[in-house]
Amino acid sequence: MGKSMAVNAGSSTLKYKLFQMPEESVISSGLVERIGLNDSVVTIKYGDGKKFEETLNISTHEEAIQIMLDQLLKLNIIKDYNEITGVGHRVVAGGEIFNDSVLIDDKVIDQIESLAEYAPLHNPAEAMGIRAFKKILPDIPSVAVFDTSFHTTMPAVNYMYALPYEYYTKFGARKYGAHGTSHRYVSQRAAEILGKPLEDLKLITLHIGAGASITAIKNGKSFDTSMGFTPLTGIMMATRTGDVDVSLISYLMEKLNITKMDDMIDILNHKSGLIGVSGVSADMREVEAVQADNKQAKLARDMYIQRIVRYVGEYVAELDGVDAIVFTAGVGENDFTIRQEVADKLDYFGIKVDPEKNHIRGVERDLSAADATVKTLLIPTDEELMIVRDIERLK
Ligand SMILES: Nc1ncnc2c1ncn2[C@@H]1O[C@H](COP(=O)(O)OP(=O)(O)O)[C@@H](O)[C@H]1O
Ligand SMILES: CC(=O)OP(=O)(O)O
Ligand SMILES: [Mg+2]
């Protein structure tokens, strides 16, 4: 009994879902998009199909949380914050400390903050969100659900960097990955849709949003993933480089007269990726709107696709075959053109998408063409559902 709230702070978004428990029915869901960009959009769904929408400039996750909390009361979604009896927060980095979700106490908040360097765009904002909720609801159970915990099953051969070994044992220098809650959710749904036990499947899950990562899943477990020590590496993202030669970084620092590594990393995290190459926008929709007449925008989009294709190819090899690939997250769920072009480039593997089935947004569907030997699925992610289940499990 009661209402449970799942809070999901992404790099450019803040999402929440308020669930009636134990039914797991969604009372209200909200999304603040484009945090830190101009014209942030707040969308809140509630009641019987009611929708609140507002466009304003929101520069931090702290502001986004405040707006969201105010609207819960203003829109009469709840009459009092005390109606909420459990809160779960998505946290990106859990390092090697957290291989499962935990009940949050002061020590856990400190540990999440101590892992800030493992996810600089996320953990500080997420710790802040946890504190904001603790302030208004100090006595209800709250749970942290880590992106990294799904990836703790990766074998050392995949999570180790070829650096001196003691950097791992002394400093925790290894690949941790991210988006684990999403990769876990869509892999479970994929098994249900395919009607096969997850343990028997080889899957490649493509979580492509503002942050983006690809995971190879073997026997239901994360086997390899594209993000690294932090969510900076792997495929190209909205504002992040993805993989880059680190020697180039020191060369560029000299050229740009940058003396602090943090300043350089800030460029790699915030000024690169789609926005960096296109010079237009971090938002795929805006890049696509101008690509016909803008060479850089077209190049940015082509690079974005190419890197996805590259990782899928790598993971087909690592998994020694694949049963299905799954598209999810902001771009993966909404952009049929990206899905189509990615699939077209992978047809050697037997990945083939039916253009008609693919012409859709945001619904679960098998997109595979009749002659595909590898399935392509569209599965909207639901990190919030996973989070709320962990509140129930742990409270
Ligand atoms: N219709 C669409 N077409 C292309 N891209 C879209 C569309 N809708 C959303 N996106 C992309 O999805 C991104 C947000 O993805 P999401 O996974 O929700 O964010 P986050 O990484 O912050 O969790 C946006 O930046 C936008 O580029
Ligand atoms: C880890 C990460 O990049 O998350 P998001 O896509 O939500 O920003
Ligand atoms: Mg996200």
From TrEMBL:
It is found in: Cytoplasm. ATP binds at K15, H207, I208, G209, A210, G211, D283, M284, R285, G330, V331, G332, E333, N334. One of its GO terms (molecular function) is acetate kinase activity. SUPFAM superfamilies: Actin-like ATPase domain (SSF53067). Pathway: Metabolic intermediate biosynthesis; acetyl-CoA biosynthesis; acetyl-CoA from acetate: step 1/2. Mg(2+) binds at N8, E383. Substrate binds at R90. Keywords: ATP-binding, Cytoplasm, Kinase, Magnesium, Metal-binding, Nucleotide-binding, Transferase. The active site is at D147 (proton donor/acceptor). GO terms for biological process: acetate metabolic process; acetyl-CoA biosynthetic process. It comes from the Bacteria. Gene3D superfamilies: 3.30.420.40. Homodimer. NCBIfam families: ackA. This is Acetate kinase. It comes from Secundilactobacillus malefermentans.
